[in-house]
Design goal:
single chain; alpha/beta; Rossmann fold; Arc Repressor Mutant, subunit A; 12 strands
Length: 224
């Protein structure tokens, strides 16, 4: 299995490379975001370990450009200790998993093997519900041909709902997948962002796309 490690801390990159090689992985390394992006897009890999804080090009930007280029190789992001927002933003941009520094090498290998078992899922180029479309790779949302600007969190919430059309999803499911499984803030944040979305994707067009199912959660109405 081929692993690309994009990490600017030379000691850590060398340690990860040495350990994974002993586990039987074929490892390639890049010490900055520019080199990492080139390797990820021009060479085949089964999984990518990508640090957020990188010189030349941040891990966020590398990930964003990879997904925009329709490179769906599973990505494990390395985030700062207690970096709750780092983790949430990484998932918003298309990361498949994350690991906070410092981490146990045993845990790192376990995360990698889990990602390899899952593989790179086929991801639809464009999600659609009636005349509402969402393009995850280009990070674009349109309704009736008109582009709608969304924040990263709004985009992630809408994508989560559009991948589960006509299915009722609970607040806890939304918090786990759109925010973070350890989120301990006010759960009303979900209602706030649903309201933000409605103001952008429904109100100006006279539509009703997101239903509230009282006492349960929300449902994306595919008929709009």
């Amino acid at each position: 299995m081929r692993v690309l490690v994009v990490e600017d801390e030379r000691g850590l990159a060398a340690a990860i490379t040495r350990g994974l090689t002993e586990e039987g992985f074929t490892v390639h390394t890049a010490l900055n975001g520019v080199d990492g992006l080139w390797s990820a897009t021009h060479q085949p890999h089964d999984v990518i370990i990508l640090d957020i804080m990188l010189p030349a090009l941040s891990g966020y930007e590398v990930l964003k450009r990879l997904r925009a280029a329709r490179v769906w190789t599973p990505v494990l992001m390395l985030t700062a200790k207690d970096g709750e927002y780092d983790e949430a933003d990484a998932l918003d941009l298309g990361a498949d998993d994350y690991l906070s520094k410092p981490f146990s090498y045993v845990v790192l290998v376990a995360h990698l093997r889990a990602l390899l078992r899952r593989g790179a899922p086929a991801r639809p180029a464009v999600l659609a519900a009636a005349d509402l479309t969402l393009d995850p790779s280009r990070r674009k949302c349109q309704r009736a041909g008109q582009e709608i600007p969304l924040t990263a969190r709004e985009f992630a919430l809408l994508e989560f709902l559009m991948r589960r059309p006509d299915e009722v999803v609970s607040k806890s499911d939304i918090l786990t997948h759109v925010w973070d499984e350890n989120f301990d803030g006010d759960t009303n944040i979900v209602e706030v962002y649903v309201r933000y979305l409605r103001r952008k994707i429904d109100t100006p067009f006279g539509r009703h796309t997101i239903d509230t199912v009282r006492g349960v959660g929300y449902r994306l109405n595919t008929e709009g």
